[in-house]
Design a protein that fits this description.
The protein has 252 residues and is α/β, with parallel strands linked by helices. Helices cover 52% and strands 16% of the residues. The protein has 2 domains: 197 residues, 2-enoyl-CoA Hydratase, Chain A, domain 1 (Alpha-Beta Complex), CATH 3.90.226.10; 47 residues. The protein is built from 11 helices and 9 strands.
Length: 252
Amino acid sequence: MTDILWTELDDGVLRLTLNRPDKRNALNLALIDALHQAIERADLDAQVRVVTIEGAGKDFCAGADLHELLASAGQPPEANARDAMRLGDLFLAMRGLPKPVVAIVQGRALAGGCGLATACDLVLAHANAQFGYPEVQRGFVPAMVMALLRRTVGEKRAFDLVTTGRVVSADEAASLGLISRVSSADGFAVDVAAIVRGLASASPTALALTKQQFYALDGMQLAEGIRLGADVNALARSTPDFAAIITSFLKR
């Protein structure tokens, strides 16, 4: 556990909590590095079956740390590109992790914080959650997150969000396809626990193969995707989990 990122492993779930509530959990380089280390741990530790990311305090994450961002204005472009790519590499590591990554969002998820949620495989939102990419209102560009956003909500909706910078409610975010599910205030904790518990109890190999194929389909033609599916189907049939689970099911 670090001061800026709380980590807890319980019953297969590695729970990561962004811990800068006084800064609305803004992403600075130290927090991004801590997240990198946590995702690497999740990849190497067989006890980890699911990763969750949430924020301490009222908000999930307000985006980049503006003080750190302003201080970078005088750096050479090459240095700024390296710093920016640390967040980009984190998004790629999360997508490449063969285990589900779940964002648990209460309060605001804005700019890079909304990108962090979008990079997760599932986004579970409290009814009070808000999502948006207000970078243009700050003279900045939602540059890396657009690669995720276009895939998630489509061209027209993505362009609307990144050029107007408008903030949307959890319900609208769900209607746009930006998030996975919305739960009421009363049912949020119970709903989240049930979903995460279900993922943690599922076959790790089946989840890994499903996630890997799901993102590999990006940009593929239909025929190519079907052929990939056939290969994954054949591989899944050869795993110990498949034989054990089907055998158990047939014995019911």
